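Q&A log
Question type: sequence-to-structure
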Amino acid sequence: MLSKSTEYAIRALVFIQLRNWEKQRPGVLEIAQEIEAPAAYTAKILQTLTKHRLLDSMKGRGGGFHFSETQTALRLFDVIHVMEGDAWFYKCGFGLKQCNNDNPCPLHEKYKAIRDGFYAIVTTETIQSLSEKIKNGTAVLNRLELY
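Response status: OK
Response body:
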């Protein structure tokens, strides 16, 4: 559904939030390792997020990535909007340009329900709400190692 870049962006933001709650600012290498992504790719994603002011960064000793103290909860919708645009929330599941209620594709009704449900999730869930689930132990950030 979402691009790999967006998946990494969301995971990075959740990790940064968790570290910020511990009064720490993680750097690119720490973030990349934690979200299991290449460091250079992670750096580009973080650059995009800071450029769009979803995240702040500090250089030098004690620097790293952090959320502004004045920033409100960051909705998943806002992250997806920055990383992919809004097309996902309006596009046709069959790939047609003129698909709508009056001119539906074969998947229109079922895909619309999924798309609308996903929209409801990403407009109510925030980076902070996801981070809380990890902090409380009801969710995980990394893949589980199965032995």
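Response note: The first helix runs from residue 4 to 21.
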